[in-house]
Amino acid sequence: MTSPNRSPAISSFAGAVRTARQVLLVDASAAQRRLIGTRLRKAGYRVSEAESVAQALALCDAAEPDFVLSDWNVADMSGLDLCRAFRARDRSGYGYFLLLTDTADEGDIARGLEAGADDFLRKPVSGQELLARLSAGERILRVEDELRASNAQLRQTLDKLRETQAAIDRDLREARKLQQGLVRERAGRFNQIQLSLLLRPAGHIGGDLVGFFPITGDRVGLYALDVSGHGVTAALLTAQLSVHLSGASDQNVALRAAQSGSDAVPPAALAHFFNNMMLEEVNTETYFTMIYAELNHVTGQVRMVQAGHPHPMLQKADGQVLRIGRGGMPVGVFETPIFDEIEFRMEPGDRLLIASDGITEAANAAGRLLGEDGLEAIMRTNAFLGGHAFLESMAWSVSEYGRGERPDDMSAVLVEYLRPADPVGLTPR
């Protein structure tokens, strides 16, 4: 009866896996090779024999043996030399090397291990011990086979993942084109008011949105949105919001009232509309910040709501920079938020910059944020630039400050009240 804690019997093990194993037997003695080879063949191994190291290496090149059983002393070189040469060869899998020794000298064993031997057998070789040592080696080879199979499967899985990732990247590149298409116009001119837009997602797609649309003959609406988070979720909500702020009057929430003969929806009312939409229709934890403003391009009067977005910067003609607004609550968080409206007037020579937190929260190597002070410094430094030239220079400065890293989307709206002598910026292609 076989004990449950005992290793599998040699005979049954040989009948299962060992039939596929190849043993190279290296010994100068033909009688010794015949004796050991007979025992191995009876145990189910395939056996090849060599009387010299040169012959053994030739057999290793012809067909990789699973086991090498070599005498310490071979005709042309030692078993240690064979072991070193065997380890130096390129193989598809691991080969188990056993050395036959006349003594159990610790120094010989140490040299054998350094040469790459796995195990030792003392002569005269006991048939039972021989098969037991090979059985131990078989377990190692089996583990190695399983690891190789697992690695092959892992490589196949990684190849599939790369293919999937490549497909996702292609889709995201197309999605980026579609999202960039949401901003149909990157510049606009209304009397002496010039508008310029910047939109730079941190990844393929992002959650920022900027734009403008005419309301009446003397007014234009402009907006800047920043959806929380990144990636597909933020981009999908951005796309939905863009529909409500598109130039099409039948879809634009701010223009619906104007089409019925009433005035356009006030900025604070528009923020409340989006807040209700987020809480009642959008089943997600996402929220967004917003600046929406009505600008009278005849008088320069601005009526604005700030809903959690960074403070707009108003740079006066004399270079003074004012921070507009008190912050406000984000959209889609509170059931009864307070959205305050702000009114001010722009004069010829003034410009208004509405920037997302991807700009003000850019961090340097020390982790220090650019902040509104840093943005104000950029505005002063680039006071001689206008339009897209200013926005590109600002974007470059922010990138340099953040060491080229851009963890968040970057967007901005630049409103310039041109004086008659001011140059008009070119619209980018």
Automatic annotation (TrEMBL):
This is Fused response regulator/phosphatase. It comes from Paracoccus stylophorae. Pfam families: Response_reg, SpoIIE. The modification 4-aspartylphosphate is found at D71. The keyword NAD does not apply. The lineage of its organism: Bacteria, Pseudomonadati, Pseudomonadota, Alphaproteobacteria, Rhodobacterales. SMART domains: PP2C_SIG (SM00331), REC (SM00448). Residues 22-138 form the Response regulatory domain. The keyword Transferase does not apply. Keywords: Coiled coil, Hydrolase, Phosphoprotein. Residues 140-178 form a coiled coil.
